[in-house]
Amino acid sequence: MICSTCGVQRANAPVPLVCPICEDERQYVPKSGQAWTTLGEVAAERRIVVEERRAGLFELRAEPEFGIGQRMFFVVTEKGNFTWDLVPFVDETILEFFERHGGVDGMAISHPHFYSTMRDWHEETNAPIYTHAEDAAWLGERFEGQELWTEPRRQLSDQVQLIHCGGHFEGSAIMHVAPEVGEPFILTGDTIYPVVDGKHVSFMRSFPNNVPLGPKRLRGIDDALKGIKFDQIYGAFPGHEILKDGRASYEKSMARYLNYIHDAA
Asked: What is the pLDDT of residue 263?
């Protein structure tokens, strides 16, 4: 079964009365109440759209959107191919697309809101699923193929690494890509959130419930990114990205956020 609000799959039996991810203060159960759907129902009404964003970076999104509406990324490099976050279903068209580009060597997920239908993705691609161990309690169903990583940084290849930042969730992470050609970039999920002006980012414990992060967690994110170079930032949702001067935009935004948090205190 799949939660209709967050899009995360749970084991078919027993299905909880309320989705534990939505019941948490960072998400929400709708006023209309908990609702569940099935993978078949979700896939029957949607298609996955693929868009190349830059050389070696493809955006995948479900149309019409479902659940939280996050996008998925496929990173193609000379040293391996990796996905970032998930959309709620996989189909033959996408599997053929992956195969044309050399397959998938690993799939990483930023935090529990985007766990989606990870078991189905693993079974269809046979790629390991990387989630940070500090979020293990949110996994629900466990299966072979899940890789719980614990390091501050997990190197997936010479060009791709995962960085544990915390903040939004205790195990929240980003993906850093340093391709052989072109400027490095980061895929940030909800950890570092590009806002609508395309020049700044923000940081939140809960986006739908407007709960900010405090200075300690903000500095944890900043410490995790020390020494990391990047020019572009791609957030969780279509259109939420910074396409140039990403590091400078991030630093300016972090200073601004900390200033207002301290001012409010």
From this structure: 67
